């Protein structure tokens, strides 16, 4: 039986990266696979929300930048004070979901995270994280997690 998780998803853009940098600062964790993560109490009742910037399919780290420095380097470039790849070359979207399995109504989550980030999500609802993670693993990381999430939410382009 699938376990459905309330989630909100944004397609990546320079404006999204600028908002993350301005409102959240540097990620609390960064992964070699390109993921960047923030944990913040942004839920409707201050529940912990995990914000995860998902890498593009087949992510390749920029040369001469550690995985911990990718987001700050790109955020500086978006702000006009540095040189780095465009955000869309590294990440394809942002996802926000309850960090510790709290049961939240997707509409309430969407309202709360829109307030925290200042940008409304492209999609919100319930998704099967396990199924999507299994598909990503089977594809060897060459699957867009963001587009798969949005398709499951019925929010395709």
The proportion of residues forming helix, as a percent range, comes to 25-40%
What is the subunit organization of this protein?
single chain
Please give the count of helices: 6
Rounded mean pLDDT is: 91
**Largest sheet descriptor:** 6 strands, antiparallel
> How big is the Rg?
15 Å
Q: Unreliable runs, pLDDT <50, ≥5 residues?
A: none
Q: In order across it, which strands form the biggest sheet? A: 2-3-4-5-1-6
Question: How many separate structural domains?
Answer: 1
Give the percentage of residues in beta strands. 15-25%
Q: Your description of this structure?
A:
With 157 residues, the protein is α+β, with helices and mostly antiparallel strands. The protein is 34% helix and 23% strand. It has helices at residues 14-24, 70-78, 87-90, 106-117, 129-138, 145-152; strands at 4-11, 29-30, 36-40, 49-55, 91-98, 123-128. A hairpin with a 5-residue loop joins strand 2 (29-30) and strand 3 (36-40). Helix 1 (14-24) crosses helix 2. The protein is globular, with a radius of gyration of 15 Å. The model has no long low-confidence stretch (mean pLDDT 91).
